[in-house]
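ok new one. same drill as before - structure tokens go in, u give me an amino acid for every spot. 253 of them this time. try not to just spam alanines like last time pls lmao
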């Protein structure tokens, strides 16, 4: 997956900003997430040998800011000519055309492009609200359709371990499938302890730190459960509606 654009020019930086969000969500094995910046030729060579490619860039068509366009690869039959093209004018469509010419059979056939309509591209500006909203829509689609299948799977009913020194421990499959960014919120509701996945460390909350080479994770929850830590292995249940892991504090019957 390649995010294209100029971070210094407001909404034109939506591709690289989106890449940073995906990095925080965690990159599963088998995927590569790249900040392509404005180097279209680098984007082309990044495609070499990939099974599937996703490109995200800004668009300026005059439509409503934040509008998301999804362009499937089969619509790329008529691409702009490369003759006379300068490296500074490379766009995502030029990158695809160049990749097909330069890479030959090593160029992937499965290419999807997401374009997000900009509001402004002033130097030094942040992403506008509509473009941020469009970006998160694209992030959700990329996670659901391209990355989710690469993540470890975990059953709806699992176990976690609470330690006497105030940590909760999750095995690698549970952490990788439900908490890929390693950032969580921890709250107590009645007799249940909840771990809620966050988008990344910038969202605040607690960090699930790697505790062994296998990828098991642990977070310090002593202050959240002070005086109520149920030391030992406990059953846990993924709540699809709440998008969170529920752990009963009292023994289940």
């Amino acid at each position: 997956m390649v995010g294209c654009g100029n971070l210094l020019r407001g909404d034109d930086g939506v591709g690289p900003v989106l890449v940073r969000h995906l990095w925080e969500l965690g990159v599963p094995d088998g995927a590569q997430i790249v900040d392509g910046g404005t180097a279209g030729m680098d984007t082309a060579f990044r495609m070499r040998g990939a099974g599937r490619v996703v490109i995200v860039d800004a668009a300026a068509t005059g439509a409503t800011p934040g509008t998301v366009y999804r362009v499937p690869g089969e619509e790329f039959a008529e691409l702009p000519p490369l003759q006379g093209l300068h490296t500074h004018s490379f766009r995502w469509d030029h990158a695809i055309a160049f990749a097909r010419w330069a890479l030959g059979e090593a160029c992937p056939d499965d290419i999807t492009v997401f374009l997000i309509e900009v509001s402004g591209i002033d130097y030094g500006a942040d992403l506008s609200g509509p473009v941020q909203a469009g970006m998160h829509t694209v992030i959700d689609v990329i996670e659901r359709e391209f990355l989710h299948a690469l993540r470890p799977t975990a059953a709806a009913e699992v176990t976690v371990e609470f330690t006497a020194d105030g940590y909760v421990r999750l095995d690698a499959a549970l952490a990788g499938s439900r908490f890929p960014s390693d950032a969580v919120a921890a709250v107590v509701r009645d007799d249940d302890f909840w771990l809620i996945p966050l988008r990344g460390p910038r969202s605040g909350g607690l960090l699930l730190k790697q505790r062994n080479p296998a990828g098991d994770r642990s977070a310090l929850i002593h202050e959240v459960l002070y005086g109520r830590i149920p030391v030992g292995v406990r059953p846990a249940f993924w709540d699809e509606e709440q998008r969170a892991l529920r752990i009963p504090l009292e023994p289940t019957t």
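The CA atoms of residues 10 and 187 lie 36 Å apart. and btw The mean pLDDT is 84.
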